[in-house]
Specification:
- GO terms for molecular function: transmembrane transporter activity.
- This is MFS transporter.
- It comes from Salipaludibacillus neizhouensis.
- It is a multi-pass membrane protein.
- The chain is mainly alpha-helical.
- Helices cover 76% and strands 0% of the residues.
- The longest helix has 35 residues.
- The C terminus is likely disordered.
Length: 475
């Protein structure tokens, strides 16, 4: 029995560390962009692709992960994903020019897109229902903490050393994880050997990739840009055809019928709103500090750091509380805190202190730690084991899209409101007015999440073959 427990602990630790360093890379480039621009003689718009392309490829790979989890063993998939990520890290760290650096980021994100859905699926498989909350709490630590410390860590490293060190310090960790996983990792997922459907893969890539790129573009150049509109139309049409194709298939690449499970659907929406708020506030606060108040990127990163640390501490704790009280109580209390803290960020001015920003963001992250993984776990608990891979892929995909859409809308609101305020004689700081209006929108969206959280119920997975599920009638 102790051997089994030790094996579970080792597998969980390995997956957590691997996922942590891969997801950390999602935001690691944000404050490293200025020195890269200088060294490689590129513009800010060009350099921004180092972050954008990582999110795009990540978003394309996540929906495919459900198919890959059913096709390959846990060990095969983990080692392959980490090896691809490691190769990308080497390419990026040694890149002689921007094109090679961007290619390295593409390789990195190809491996990263598989890691989080794989980790969540494995955790749900190896831990019993009464311990899933605690287990998923550690995943919450990875999802919230890793992206949040990226800007501060990269700001410190690039201020004192070369940006290449961002890749070189991760390289030995990644190689060590691959070696250890070769000896420790065992297969725990259910293999179904699904057939490869190239059309589904193409439609999924154009659909989810198109949406992510369109809204990322909208955040930079606006929703009326021809490029944004064309890519958005292509993305929507591809996604519609992809969904229709999946609904007609006996063994779809990504199962959309899981949205017939009520708690899963509500939990996914609430988690998406929470994650949108996380990425949105991480975008707005640094913009406000750097572009308006002239703080450095490192100082902006430091303001976000205490909230990230608090989330890292609280995620495992709220996971254990979830196992005792369920997701609804945590989600409602958490969303009340998140909504209140968001409201507190609607009244920024030219003299707002670093302490105020740090405290309000930390409070917001404290509430977020009570929402993200508890509602996700509550929703996944409703699914039968055979659909867990599809459930984890879907929740992660929805979070990525929500973050992209939310950030684009918030930046658009900030810009539009700022332009409006500039024409009004009574408003002294139109840019700050724009930021405040963006936080008003964010507060309104989180309030909607609060209302939805009330309808989350305590769930247990149905016994395979002994209960009729909403999609049990499929052939």
């Amino acid at each position: 029995m102790n051997t089994e427990v030790n094996n579970k602990t080792l597998i969980a630790a390995l997956l957590l560390i691997g996922s942590f360093i891969t997801i950390l890379n999602q935001t690691l480039m944000i404050t490293a962009i200025p020195p890269i621009m200088v060294e490689m003689n590129i513009t800010a718009n060009t350099a921004q692709w180092l972050t954008t392309v990582f999110m795009l490829v990540n978003g394309i790979m996540i929906p495919i992960s459900a198919f890959l989890i059913e096709k390959f063993t846990t060990r095969q998939l983990f080692i392959t994903a980490m090896s691809i990520f490691t190769l990308g890290t080497i390419v990026a760290g040694l890149a002689p020019n921007f094109e090679v650096l961007l290619f390295g980021r593409i390789i990195q994100s190809t491996g990263t897109g598989v890691m989080l859905p794989l980790m969540q699926t494995v955790f749900l498989m190896i831990f019993p229902v009464n311990k899933r909350g605690a287990a998923m709490g550690y995943i919450g630590l990875v999802i919230s903490f890793a992206p949040a410390i990226g800007p501060a860590l990269s700001g410190w490293i690039t201020s004192n050393y070369s940006w290449r060190l961002l890749f070189l310090i991760i390289l030995p960790l990644a190689i060590g994880i691959i070696i250890v996983s070769h000896f420790i990792l065992k297969n725990v997922t259910e293999l179904k050997n699904p057939k490869v459907d190239p059309i589904s893969i193409i439609l999924s890539s154009f659909g989810f990739g198109g949406l992510l790129y369109a809204f990322t573009s909208a955040g930079n150049v606006g929703f009326t840009s021809p490029i944004t509109l064309i890519v958005l139309i292509i993305g929507v049409l591809s996604l519609v055809f992809f969904i229709l194709r999946q609904l007609r298939m006996a063994h779809p690449m990504l199962e959309f019928r899981i949205f017939k499970y009520r708690t899963f659907t509500i939990g996914t929406v609430v988690a998406s709103i929470a994650f949108m708020g996380l990425i949105g506030s991480e975008t707005l606060i640094p913009l406000y500090m750097q572009d308006i108040l002239d703080f450095t990127a490192f100082e902006a990163g430091l303001v976000l750091l205490p909230g990230a640390v608090l989330t890292g501490i609280m995620s495992p704790i709220t996971g254990r509380i979830f196992d005792k009280v369920g997701g609804r109580v945590l989600a409602v209390v958490g969303m009340v805190i998140v909504t209140g803290a968001s409201l507190g960020l609607c009244f920024l001015d030219e003299s707002t202190s670093l302490q105020y920003l740090t405290v309000m963001y930390a409070i917001r992250m404290f509430g977020l730690s009570m929402v993200m993984m508890p509602v996700t776990t509550a929703g996944l608990n409703e699914l039968p084991q055979s659909l867990l891979a599809h459930g984890t892929a879907m929740t992660n995909t929805m979070r990525q899209i929500a973050a992209s859409v939310g950030t684009a809308i918030l930046v658009t609101v900030m810009t539009t409101a700022g332009e409006y305020a500039a024409e009004q004689p009574g408003i002294s700081y139109p840019e700050i007015f724009g930021v405040n209006m963006a936080f008003v929108v964010l507060t309104s969206v989180t309030f909607v999440g609060l209302i939805l959280a009330v309808f989350i119920r305590k769930t247990y997975p149905p016994l395979e073959g002994k209960s009729v599920s909403p999609i049990s009638d499929q052939k």
